[in-house]
Amino acid sequence: MLLLLQILIIGVGATLMMDLWALLRLRLFGVPSLNYAMFGRWLLWIPKGRFIHRPIASSESQQGEALVGWIAHYAIGITFAGLLLPFAGAEWFTEPSAGPAVALGLATVAAPFFLLQPALGMGMAASRAPNPWGTRAHSLITHTVFGLGLYLSALVSKGMGLV
């Protein structure tokens, strides 16, 4: 049960750090983050049999899409944090290190590259985005920040005496 609490704290913390980075990125570079209402719209269309949109903004809006998108965003962050257990082992939660967390953060970039971006109409690894290489670079940086967030949140969890 304690391990589940740690995963929850680490996942929420890392996702929050990624969101704070998105705000900073917007201020520094003028690059907006994913609109989580569009993510929610995509998720809400899946049970209706529509997986791919070209682009998602042209698909009919769905009731509650912003809330669904944000909840899913944090649920995915928690799920990715849970992947540290098979990826780095249970001992990582008692003695966290940056390497496995950052490596996992980088590995999670596969989700937007090969699932979300194509489904939202941006093509594989943002190949149809206005600036594909810029979009890819921002995705890589954002997921690296998520990995650092995993590590820092694990340190917070450890400092809270949860280990």
Explain what you see:
This protein is mainly alpha-helical. It is built from 8 helices and no strands. The model has no long low-confidence stretch (mean pLDDT 95).
Short summary:
This protein is mainly α and 163 residues long.
Keywords:
single chain; 163 residues; mainly alpha; 8 helices
Termini separation: 11 Å
Q: Helical residue percent?
A: 55-70%
- Our Rg estimate from Cα atoms comes to 16 Å
Element-level helix/strand string: HHHHHHHH
Number of helices: 8
Shape: globular
Portion in beta strands:
under 5%
Query: If you average the pLDDT, what whole number results?
Result: 95
Note poorly predicted spans: none
Largest sheet: none
SS content category: mainly alpha
Explain the layout of strands and helices.
Elements: H1 2-29, H2 36-45, H3 65-82, H4 84-88, H5 91-94, H6 98-107, H7 110-119, H8 132-159
Helix pairs in contact: 1-3, 1-8, 2-3, 6-8
